[in-house]
Design brief:
- This protein starts with 6 loop residues before the first helix and ends in a 21-residue tail after the last strand.
- It is built from 16 helices and ten strands.
- The longest helix is centred in the middle third of the chain and has 15 residues.
- A hairpin with a 5-residue loop joins strand 5 and strand 6.
- It folds into three domains: 190 residues, Leucine-rich Repeat Variant (Alpha Horseshoe); 73 residues, no CATH class; 96 residues, no CATH class.
- A four-stranded mixed beta sheet has the order 4-3-6-5, with helices on one face. Strands 1-2 form a two-stranded antiparallel sheet.
- It is 44% helix and 8% strand.
- The protein is of the alpha+beta class.
Length: 375
């Protein structure tokens, strides 16, 4: 098809209402590497149609870096995140830098890990990519980009940081302001309470500190709080005898009880990942906890609305505990909610069973086994 249709026709097909036709045109367009098509592609990255811009940016990665670097760096600052991510991937391919490609991934955790990896490599020449990430849809990515600019002393990024201050949350503003101070830019602005923008209070003692000196702490059913070193250690000592130690999420930099982590991700970041994962066919579902796909018959009846749980994870949720015999608040809530909805956890089968299937015997322990397992 790429031999039969010229790039202009393929770009036009991307405006079609037919999804299959758009996908076919995009696939064939991205196989084009004819130098004569470069002027057209350079024009298309400014097109009003989002699909056209994404396809044009993706196609540019087929050419030599010297020919398309300017266009790809321009696309890094497109108004749409999908175009920015496509430009990140394109530059990553041309530079043969996997970490930069990760900065264009749909999953925020991959974008954060890409930034962190480039900082370790002292990759200061990707400054424009860090600047573009200051405007990411995820606050965690924006925070990581500000941290990278601080760590690498990217003085030319001061203007980009200042531009992003207006629409940032109070916590993000503190990160941006601290980065600006590290770059030698004085901050005169103050927040609504008259405090310097680069400082935030500890939730316990109200001592003002920059965000890099505060610990972000969260637990199930609680909003994150910021603590100074002393009060963070105090909280750790209180938690340790019952629920184990805190563990720091590499994506959002928030400390959670260790048992809340699954495959290295905290509940908040895993929820965001669940939202960004692709949809599955109607006869399948994705487990909210382990995020693997299963046939519908493997969904636990104890699942909450909008948060389907596989049978194996349902048992795991019910057993959540830092140190035996203590159950976490989340596990207790999960078990009580299931009971209120008419289900109990059969310890022998490890499945949630309807309450009317409970076996009644002379000993109360008989009631924890469903009828099908009673001999």
């Amino acid at each position: 098809m790429s031999e039969e249709l010229d790039p202009r026709e393929l770009l036009e097909q991307l405006r079609s209402h037919d999804t299959a036709l758009r996908q076919e045109a995009s696939r064939h367009l991205q196989s084009i590497s004819d130098p004569s098509a470069l002027p057209l592609l350079a024009e298309a990255i400014n097109d009003d149609d989002l699909s056209v811009r994404i396809a044009a940016v993706s196609t540019l990665s087929n050419y030599d870096l010297e020919l398309v670097q300017e266009q790809l760096e321009q696309a890094l600052f497109d108004d749409e995140w999908e175009v920015q991510w496509a430009a990140m991937k394109g530059l990553g391919s041309l530079h043969k830098e996997t970490s930069l490609r990760h900065m264009g991934d749909r999953l925020p955790e991959k974008r954060v890990s890409g930034i962190q990896s480039l900082v370790k490599k002292k990759a200061r020449h990707f400054e424009k990519a860090f600047q573009a990430s200051l405007d990411d849809e995820s606050d965690d990515v924006r925070k990581a980009a500000a941290w990278a600019i601080m760590e690498l002393h990217l003085y030319d990024s001061a203007e980009a940081l200042q531009e992003q201050m207006s629409d940032a949350s109070r916590e993000l503003k503190a990160w941006f302001a601290e980065a600006l101070l590290q770059l030698g830019v004085p901050i005169q602005e103050r927040d609504e309470e008259g405090q310097p923008l680069h400082l935030q209070p500890c939730a316990e003692c109200n001592h003002l500190l920059p965000p890099t000196q505060l610990h972000r702490l969260s637990r199930w059913n609680h909003d994150p709080i910021l603590l100074c070193q002393f009060h963070f250690e105090e909280q750790t000592e209180k938690l340790e005898p019952f629920e184990g130690k805190f563990k720091k999420c590499k994506t959002c930099m928030t400390h959670w009880p260790k048992y809340d982590f699954i495959d290295g991700g905290c509940p908040s970041c895993r929820e965001q990942r669940f939202i960004n994962l692709p949809q599955l066919p109607d006869d399948q579902f994705r487990c909210f906890r382990c995020q693997k796909s299963f046939p519908e018959r493997s969904q636990s009846p104890a699942s909450a609305p909008g948060e389907p749980i596989c049978t194996r994870c349902a048992h795991g949720m019910a057993q959540l505990s830092g140190k035996q015999p203590f159950l976490s608040n989340r596990a207790t809530h999960f078990l009580s909610t299931a009971f209120e909805n008419g289900y109990f956890l059969c310890e022998k089968s490890r499945y949630f069973k309807p309450l009317d299937e409970m076996a009644v015997g002379e000993d109360f322990r008989d009631e924890c086994v469903s009828k099908e397992y009673v001999k």
